[in-house]
Amino acid sequence: MRMRAIADTGTGTAAGHEPDLRHHGDAEVRAADGAEGANGSDPTAPADPNRPTGPTDPTPLTDLAVNVRAGTPPAWLKAEIAASLDGLAAYPDGRAARRAVAARHALPVERVLLTSGAAEAFVLLARAVRAKRPVVVHPQFTEPEAALRDAGHTVERVLLTERDGFRLDADAIPSDADLVVVGNPTNPTSVLHPAETLASLARPGRTLVVDEAFMDAVPGERAALAGRTDLPGLVVLRSLTKTWGLAGLRIGYVLAAPDLIADLAGAQPLWPVSSPALAAARACTTPAALAEAAAAAEEIAADRAHLLARLGEFPTLRAVGPAEAPFVLIRLPDAMTVRAGLRARGFAVRRGDTFPGLGPDWLRLAVRDRATTDRLVTALAEVLGAAAS
């Protein structure tokens, strides 16, 4: 079946409103002390009228809103980062970390750029790539579009549809799009697009940006394009913050052709990645670390299967599948009220209406261990039961 896609210049979405591209999951778990705005970090941002917070939370929140792996960073990684503190008097030297990342993907160092998280990479690309028709595939992580708009680009959206399971058809991308951004696996849908589908989008004169921030949570990293050098204009972004619990440290990297890497590096400030973050990059790319990440991916897959099975007990709830990332996207009636009810019972979940192409009936749930899932299901049953009474 041909996928139905909606081209949108950003003035509206399938949900009939313009989403808040700056909203992130961490806003769902921050205390309601008035110290932050709608996006959880900007105190000048307008208040979120749908945010289910009160003067105090009745119980400590279990975080299902942020996709960082629970129980991280591991002790050995904390030790590596702590050891780097003795060198803080010196300016950061990223050469060893860059070589480590290059070796991890069997690439020359000229094809690697270390960044202050993947978010910085989106900003650098928006500033360095001269695009006449940039296209962002949605629903997906909203920072790429926000960065492009901040840099003065007029962004066109291709909206994937629930009807087709939010799967990408290469024919939905305009043939003259010279910058295409897509996530794989995609946040928030948890869809893993086939590598051959994404590879078919590459062509001379086009920059194809594939955000693989969650690819190391996919067993075997199947569908990964990281390490490919045969596709013209390919840019792959990776993050070390999700699997290793380093969101507060900020470390990610870009894999691309050397000329583009040089352009992006020229747009960076001096010493953009701190010495502790560089130490983390080296530590997370060792064979032992990669083996640990692979084992974690298998565990996440099993925990996700348990979550989906338990969610299947609710006839009014639909989960997008097959899910391949460390989170699942669900649709259910009056999801905003459900979100508030779950928060009152100690669970923070991610609202979906801030993603272009989704609306207020969507929520995203991070995959956690089975005991946490079972507690969530109990709370969800209470909330839905109260709503039905």
TrEMBL record:
Low complexity: compositionally biased ranges: 7-16, 53-63
Gene3D superfamilies: Aspartate Aminotransferase, domain 1 (3.90.1150.10), Type I PLP-dependent aspartate aminotransferase-like (Major domain) (3.40.640.10)
Requisite cofactors: pyridoxal 5'-phosphate
UniProt entry keywords in alphabetical sequence: Aminotransferase, Pyridoxal phosphate, Transferase
CDD domains in the cross-refs: AAT_like (cd00609)
Pfam families from the UniProt entry: Aminotran_1_2 (PF00155)
Top-rank EC class of the record's enzyme: transferase
Region (Disordered): 1-63
Known EC number: 2.6.1.-
Basic and acidic residues bias (residue ranges): 17-33
Domain Aminotransferase class I/classII large intervals: 62-380
Molecular function per GO: pyridoxal phosphate binding; transaminase activity
InterPro entries referenced in this protein's UniProt entry, alphabetically: Aminotransferase_I/II_large, NHTrfase_class1_PyrdxlP-BS, PyrdxlP-dep_Trfase, PyrdxlP-dep_Trfase_major, PyrdxlP-dep_Trfase_small
Keyword Transferase: yes
Family stated for the protein in its record: Belongs to the class-I pyridoxal-phosphate-dependent aminotransferase family.
Protein name: Aminotransferase
